[in-house]
Amino acid sequence: YDTTLSTARAQKTNYDSYYCSTGTLLLNETVRVTDITDGSSNTIMVGEQSGSVGGADIRNRYYTPWGAAANWDANSTGKTVAAMTAASVDLYGNGLTCVRYQNNSRTAAAGSDQVYDANTLLNSYHTGGINVLLADGSVRFVPDTADFVNFKKMCMRNDGLVLTE
Question: What is the pTM for the complete model shown?
Answer without folding.
Answer: 0.76
